[in-house]
Amino acid sequence: MIDEAGEQLGVMTPLDALNLAKEKQLDLVEISPNAQPPVCRIMNYGKYIYQLKKKANVAKKNQKTIQVKEVKFRPKTDNHDYEFKKKNILRFLEEGDKVKASVSFRGREMAHKNIGRAMILRLIEDVAEKGVVEGHPKMEGNHMFVIFSNKK
User: Fold this and answer.
1) pLDDT at 66
2) What is the average per-residue pLDDT within 24-51?
3) DSSP string, 53-108
4) Helical axes 113-127 vs 79-94, angle rounded to 10°
5) Within its chain, how far is the Cα of 100 from the centroid?
6) CATH number at residue 19
7) How many Å apart are CA 5 and CA 87, to the nearest integer?
8) What is the enclosing helix (H) or strand (E) of 52?
9) I need a labelling partner for 127 at 20 to 30 A (CA). Which of 1, 36, 54, 63 fits?
């Protein structure tokens, strides 16, 4: 048995512990039910739950959520469009987000995967100063993609 100040009161019967908690107008909470004998504590349970929720809210507020932004290319993407999308990738990386750059192939373009791979390798070189590549370019179905994260 532990009281609200954290001092040990020794071993008691459940009835005695419950009466002691009622005298102090507090709750009897079982802390460790598997111990021999089980450990109980006298506390204000409502206040304890409130403090746990408050700690969880503070932890949630302090964490930063990282979004994965996607920028899509095609094998026939023009140079101006490439530069525009590259600037967007650099901006997303500066904001702290991850970026998934993908090249989509349609129909006969699947026979020329080397064009898409060359575009992704060029993008990796251009973004190298601000972003780090998480793995090699991968092919899933008719999409080749690579994921960039911010350089720390």
Assistant:
1) 79
2) 90
3) HHHHHHHHHH--PPPEEEEEE-TT--HHHHHHHHHHHHHHHHTT-EEEEEEE--GG
4) 50
5) 17
6) 3.10.20.80
7) 59
8) helix 45-62
9) 63
The residue count for the chain: 152
pLDDT digits (tens, 9 = 90+) for 98-139: 999 999 999 998 898 999 999 999 999 999 988 899 988 999
The chain-wide mean pLDDT, for the chain, equals 90
Instruction: Break the chain down into helix, strand, coil percent, rounded to 5.
Output: 45, 25, 30
- Cα separation of 2 and 48, whole Å? 15
Q: Within this chain, do residues 111 and 142 fall inside the same structural domain, yes or no?
A: yes
What is the distance between the alpha carbons of residues 26 and 143, in angstroms, rounded to a whole number?
Answer: 62
Whole-number Å distance between alpha carbons of 103 and 120: 8
Q: Which domain holds residue 123?
A: 68-150
Beta-bridge partners for 42:
28
CA atoms within 13 A on the CB side of 98: 13
Confidence check: pLDDT of 152 > 80: no
- When divided into structural domains, the chain yields a total of 2
Do both 37 and 73 map to the same domain? no
For the chain, the first-to-last Cα distance in angstroms comes to: 50
